[in-house]
Design brief:
CATH class: Alpha Beta
CATH architecture: 3-Layer(aba) Sandwich
Largest sheet: 7 strands, mixed
Order of helices and strands: HHEEHEHEHEEHEEE
Strand order of the largest sheet: 5-4-3-6-7-8-9
Number of strands: 9
Number of domains: 1
Strand content: 25-35%
Structural class: alpha/beta
Length: about 220
């Protein structure tokens, strides 16, 4: 086992498992997807540490345990069609692709989009449709989806994304404002109804293009 493989093993055992990520299939995905392929060169030594890693353009990779818990709680099946909002480096995209049939991933920043395309190609991930687009509107032309995963935080989940879930489909997002946000699971229970459940507290960088709360000044 080389140093990076050892670091990946340690990440799973010391960061991921203690965060109640115990599904063997999810742990297997985390163990064999090489996160160093998705980390900017200047930060590769930190690929498996429990920190956010800057990507530029005001964006960052969340700590590995956040991606792992999102993966665990959205409970993907091998037949699922997934929409990801915010491709970023492509790391979460790779995790989702490994656990599902197909992923459509939207990234608003052209430089991050281009880099993610290169990263996923390096990792040999091919069941992904990467699009340069504003994620706020989703991808209704490719839906409906079994699962939608937001790779960063939002003030609230727009209805236009919830509408792109199949009945029985799940959307997971980190919702709210600093200092405390909550990972929230939304399940479409019928053509016109959704259940919502707060899962755990965390924080994450904001997704671009999503509405912010109104600020009144006096």
């Amino acid at each position: 086992m080389n140093a990076l493989e050892q670091a990946r093993f340690n990440m799973v055992e010391q960061q991921i498992r203690p965060w109640q990520v115990l599904d063997p299939a999810v742990l297997h995905t985390l163990q064999h997807i090489a996160r160093e392929l998705f980390v900017p060169a200047a930060y590769q030594a930190l690929a498996y540490t429990d920190i956010e890693i800057p990507l530029g353009h005001g964006q960052a990779m969340v700590a590995p345990r956040i991606d792992a818990r999102l993966m665990h709680d959205v409970a993907l099946k091998p037949t699922d069609k997934v929409l990801e909002i915010g491709t970023g480096s492509g790391y979460l995209t790779a995790l989702l692709a490994d656990r599902s049939h197909h992923v459509v991933s939207l990234e608003i920043n052209p430089e991050l989009h281009a880099k993610a395309c290169a990263n996923l190609q390096s990792a040999g991930i091919s069941n992904v449709d990467l699009r340069m687009a504003d994620g706020y509107a989703g991808a209704s032309d490719a839906g409906p989806f079994d699962a939608i995963v937001l790779g960063g935080s939002v003030y609230e989940v727009p209805q236009v994304l919830l509408d792109q879930l199949k009945v029985g489909g799940r959307l997971i997002a980190i919702v709210g404002e600093e200092p405390v946000m909550q990972a929230t699971l939304h399940i479409r229970t019928s053509a016109s109804a959704w259940d919502h459940k707060a899962l755990w507290d965390t924080t994450a960088p904001r997704l671009l293009g999503f509405k912010q709360p109104s600020r009144f000044t006096f």
